[in-house]
Amino acid sequence: MLKEERQQIILDVLKRRGKVVAAELAKELDVSADTVQRDLKELSRSGLLQRVHGGGLPRSPANTTFAQRQLQSPEAKAHIALAAIEFLQEDQTLFMDGGTTTLQLARSLPAHMRLNIITNSPPLAVALADHPAVQIILLGGQLIKESLITVGAGTVNAVRQMRADIFFMGVCSAHPDVGLSTLYLDETYIKQAMIANANLVIGLMSPEKLNTASSFVVSPITSLTHLITEKSVPEEALLPYQEAGIQTIRA
Q1: What's the confidence (pLDDT) of residue 196?
Q2: What is the pLDDT of residue 4?
Q3: Per the count of CB atoms within 10 A, which of 51, 123, 198, 224 is most buried?
Q4: Are 139 and 150 within 8 A, CB to CB?
């Protein structure tokens, strides 16, 4: 069997099962474990899957530019934003990190609602600049241009000095086994600090990011109190999250 044929079979298995296990692939393809590992490494390098211990998972579609991500699932993000608004009360303090779904939430906030919003997302801060009742704290730091977020030790230290009623987290990848993961190591520290200092942690996730993985693990999925996704996601796909004690909402 040619390498290209073998790797296409691996991708087909990944699509059907939602994951691939290296030991199982070696038996099914009748090749060595080393051969499977080389295939997984090449497929990961090509951006076709995310290598994890013992195999591979679907790769998050968030591995594109911010402008490209704004074109992904716009209706789903609008529905998710409206569901998230149901959690809001006057004068709450919110953490909102970067992402196109949290940006949609910012654009959807009711004009009358008084809120204090702490964010490391410059586009989100700009979107709220004309909101008459929202106070904004924009966290400084080094700008990750691909995601348009600020990161760094100073950013993390600033978050640690604050507390929020809710952290609305833009989810890059979520998987019951791997947990919450993201594309940049420095971003994990921001998310971890916000998780630690919020009463509720609500993940906002468009359907294509469910059951995927990215390079850097933020936390187990149990760090979420709620997960809001779109109604097209089958109820059974959310069962592992519900079994972990997370309240799931299909908007």
Answers
A1: 98
A2: 85
A3: 224
A4: yes
Please give the biggest Cα pair distance in the chain.
65
Please give the model's pTM, rounded to 2 decimal places: 0.84
Q: Tell me what pLDDT residue 246 has.
A: 97
pLDDT at 123: 96
- Predicted pLDDT of residue 16: 84
Residues pairing with 166 in the sheet = 94, 200
Strand partners, 229: 250
**Tell me, what DSSP letter sits at residue 18?**
S
CB 139 within 8 A of CB 120: yes
**Separation CA 74–CA 162 (nearest Å):** 31
Q: Report the distance separating Cα 216 and Cα 219, nearest Å.
A: 9
Mean pLDDT of 138-162: 96
For the cut 90, the answer to whether the pLDDT of residue 165 exceeds it is yes
137 neighbors 164 (Cβ within 8 angstroms): no
The domain that holds 43 is classified in CATH as 1.10.10.10
Distance CA 25, CA 124 (A): 44
Scan for tokens 């959690």, then name that residue: 87
% residues pLDDT > 90 (the chain): 63
Cβ-contact 94, 102 below 8 angstroms: no
Q: Looking at the structure, do residues 71 and 49 belong to the same domain, yes or no? A: no
209 sits in the region (left: phi over 0; alpha: psi -120 to 50; else beta) called: alpha
Backbone angles phi, psi at 194, to 5 degrees: -70, -40
Distance from the first to the final alpha carbon of the chain: 45
Q: Are residues 96 and 43 in the same domain?
A: no
Residue that is last in its domain, among 57, 80, 96:
57
The residue range of the domain holding 41 is 3-57
